[in-house]
Design goal:
Layout (H helix, E strand, L loop, with lengths): L1 H13 L1 H20 L1 H7 L2 H30 L2 H5 L6 H31 L5 H24 L4 H7 L1 H17 L5 H6 L3 H12 L4 H5 L2 H18 L7
Helix pairs in contact: 1-6, 2-4, 2-6, 3-4, 4-6, 4-7, 4-8, 4-9, 4-11, 7-11, 7-13, 9-11
Length: about 240
């Protein structure tokens, strides 16, 4: 698995287009939100900015990067060749996705760290960490599922748009409007419960039990993502 991960890491840094679209652009967007944090905090809250950071990097970095990577490796039959080695399926996928996952995690931690330096530390770091990790697991699962419907890395630019734009739209809706109305709907949408949980973790003042309830919709979306991945993911190109 580690050999696969090292090889994939080298490929990532050799692909300048992937670096720009999947890593540099999301960071630039997040930097803009932090620079204008007072205006966005007035529009929503500091928790809203933190949620935007998590989902912008998660959607356009991890999710899109996962789909593009797996589609490219399937197209050139690299996935098929890997399955002929001693590595099992889980080890192959972990090796391919470990580098991009770690890069995205480091990006989110760094950006949230800068936000905390500018605005103040979050009230509950452990709760915030749980929200971030569950969000990234969900985006990985959705990436695996979408990769099964994507025939090439070029097509990934289209197939990833509904989920990427959809979750960011949900984050903006929930982060700005709150969950006082249409509470159940907002929490059940992908990204809705996570946005509220990030806000609770950042600002504090919410009973722990009320925040832990939000873990259920997030766990549900992880189950859905894994089920979709198991259903749609393919190791070889369609004939």
């Amino acid at each position: 698995m580690l050999a696969i991960a090292l090889s994939e890491l080298i490929q990532i840094f050799r692909n300048r287009l992937a670096l720009v679209t999947s890593f540099i652009m999301p960071v630039a967007v997040c930097a803009f939100f932090i620079r204008q944090h007072e205006q966005f905090a007035a529009l929503g809250s500091l928790g809203y900015i933190a949620a935007v950071v998590v989902f912008t990097v998660g959607a356009f970095g991890l999710y899109t990067g996962t789909v593009t990577t797996l589609a490219a490796r399937r197209q050139n039959l690299f996935l098929k060749r890997l399955r002929s080695t001693a590595a099992d399926d889980v080890g192959i996928l972990c090796g391919l996705l470990l580098p991009i996952s770690l890069i995205v995690l480091v990006q989110i931690v760094a950006i949230l760290g800068v936000l905390a330096m500018v605005t103040g530390l979050p009230a509950d770091v452990l709760l915030l960490s749980a929200a971030v990790l569950l969000t990234l697991v969900m985006m990985l699962g959705l990436g695996l599922a979408t990769a099964g419907l994507t025939n090439s890395p070029e097509q990934a630019q289209i197939t990833t748009l509904p989920v990427s734009l959809g979750v960011v739209a949900v984050v903006s809706w929930v982060g700005i409007a709150g969950t006082d109305d249409l509470t159940l709907l907002k929490r059940l949408l992908p990204g809705g419960a996570a946005t509220e949980l990030v806000g609770n973790a950042w600002h504090g003042g919410v009973p722990v039990a009320d925040s832990l309830v939000l873990l259920a919709p997030m766990a549900g979306w992880i189950v859905v993502a894994v089920a979709l991945a198991a259903r749609f993911f393919r190791w070889e190109p369609r004939r």
